[in-house]
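User: Okay, second chain of the day. Same drill as before: sequence in, structure tokens out.
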Amino acid sequence: MKLTTKLLAATAMVSAASAANAVELEVMHWWTSGGEAAAVGKFAEAVNERTEHTWIDGAIAGGGDTARPVMVSRIIGGDPPAAFQFNHGRQAEELIEAGLMLDLTDVAEAEGWEDIVNPPSLLDACTVDGRVYCAPVNIHSWQWMWLSNAAFENAGLEVPSSWTEFVAMAPALREAGIVPLAMGGQSWQQSGAFGVMNVALAGEDLWFRINRDKDASAVRSPEFRAVLEAFGEARNLAEGLDVLDWNLATAAVIEDRAAAQIMGDWAQGEFQVAGEVEGEDYTCLAGLGETAILSTGGDAFYFPVTGDPEIEAAQKEMAALLLSPEVQVSFNSAKGSLPIRGDVDLTTVNACTQTGLDLLANGNVMPDGNQLIAPDAQSQINDLMTEFWNDPAMSIDDVQERYAQIIENAS
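Assistant: Same drill. Structure tokens below.
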């Protein structure tokens, strides 16, 4: 499609949407921490100020594992919200197959999403049988460790530059009364941290063999066993901090009670809300300082079919708005994530975000596990890793073989 045609189509779509009556748009999501709330507020502000419609916030506390079943229940029960947040990947496959999701292909074509969404895999994750069913809004990467500069200073240590250095410093941190590693009590946190360690300590090739190729022999390898052993050691480093939610673990790092946390770049939003300054108060290590790579996970918005033409017009107007340059900058700057557009100005971002942008620009990227592993298998992995985390008596042989069996049966 020629650019002129795209612009005319986009103009026609905006005009048609603007002509629709004002609609209240209930939007369901699980962004409830301080940094997340500040970020989603940018979306709400854009909808309320730039359209005739009203954002009705439907936040659900407890993270995605809690929120997703509630959202799905609403949809299949015939009481869908206007929009809802899922992660990039395969989480909405069954809803799309059931015909419950609004087809956004006309919006994607009119707005030129194929040309602006970077990396293209994020739009691919929204596409089923050539039709687009979601609006990707950010790039989030799990591949980070966040460090409290003051915690290391209080222990008489330099801030480490790698996981290996950090582990060596753990005894001195303990002696200073500081918990080396902050970890929350939810399974997705423990499983996510393990995934980061898998890539950082064993390399991306092994990770791809497991998650993309479903190669159970890779799980049974000595290299994967070494990661499991390191994860068991990490469990020991986390003793002494009893929190459930991820942002409370982040708060322990912000308050210098814990030295470090393995957590996605959404943690940076918490540092910003607390007034922390990168380089002065905290340090970030991509790939634990061992294997610098950016996983391209993140979030997308889906829009359930309602059968109401006015709601559908408002949904499509909202989808286009979420990917507009100004909204992409304001939301992602607050969220700590990267925009899915490669044509926006982010020259004022801090060094952590700039590191992510550089990795993206240089092609040092990999997909998120949610894009390759079906939700049921991912749930089994989460359960297994949290069981291993909470049971020191569980043998490496046992967890390694059970993990291999999950991969053998994964789709």
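The chain is about 50% helix and 15% strand.

User: Thanks, on to the next one.
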